[in-house]
Amino acid sequence: MERMAADKLIFHKTCFCCKHCKKKLSLQSYAPLYGEFYCVFHYQQLFKRKGNYDEGFGHQQHKDRLLVDPSFL
Prior knowledge:
By secondary structure, the chain is an alpha+beta fold. The chain has helices at about 40-50, 55, 60-65; strands at about 5, 10, 30-35, 35-40. It has one domain (about 5-60): Cysteine Rich Protein (Ribbon).
């Protein structure tokens, strides 16, 4: 069985699929986010729907994770 590597992970070629639609991905047509892999179309669609990459994928927004010393505010 053929293998391929993406983002330092090894996949069977037939198992490297979009998390959303299960379409087979290639090294030239995928978008990684938080260890998940998406086809470019669904990555962009999920981004547009929520307005930012974090919310579109069910993760906490970067601005909410930012640690700021209150004395700087």
